[in-house]
């Protein structure tokens, strides 16, 4: 059987990614509708970059980011967050209501980095994003907390 041209495969992957992001956004909006939340402006400045300081690893422990591996998050006015996750770039949708936040699972590039610990760190960070339920800001820091109000991601201003 003949394989389709490479351009068609790339188009299909792009369409699949768009469908996944669209579905994730729909899930977040449905969640907010069903829990009677209404989107309100984010308490942190839009178009501001944050650098991750610590995260909950895959064992559930809050640990510092590996030195030299920048993990960033930028909240945009269009309801998306994006940044670098240590090795790859990512994007996800978000909604905020007061101190509550909902973030969809991220779509990311698929590079593999050889530096020790970078890929597990990235996996843990990307798994933590959709677990965020609350946001705290103050001074030059921001924290995302889970449903039990435990810090899962801690940031400083870039």
Describe the structure.
The protein is an alpha+beta fold. The chain has a single domain, classed as Lipocalin (Beta Barrel). Strands 1, 2, 3, 4, 5, 6, 7, 8, 9 and 10 form a ten-stranded antiparallel β-sheet that branches. Strand 3 and strand 4 form a beta hairpin. The longest helix has 29 residues. The protein is globular and about 55 Å long. The termini are far apart. About 4% of the residues have low confidence.
Helix-strand layout with pairing:
Elements: H1 6-34, E1 49-56, E2 62-64, E3 72-75, E4 80-84, E5 89-97, E6 100-103, E7 107-108, H2 118-128, E8 134-138, E9 141-145, E10 151-157
Antiparallel strand pairs: 1-2, 1-3, 1-10, 3-4, 4-5, 5-6, 5-7, 8-9, 9-10
Query: Which structural class should the secondary elements be placed in?
Result: alpha+beta
Q: Could you give the count of β-strands?
A: 10
Distance between the termini: 52 Å
The first-level CATH class is given as Mainly Beta
- Strand proportion: 25-35%
Summarize the structure.
With 158 residues, the protein is of the alpha+beta class.
Identify the notable features of this structure and list them briefly.
158 residues; alpha+beta; Lipocalin; ten-stranded antiparallel sheet; 2 helices
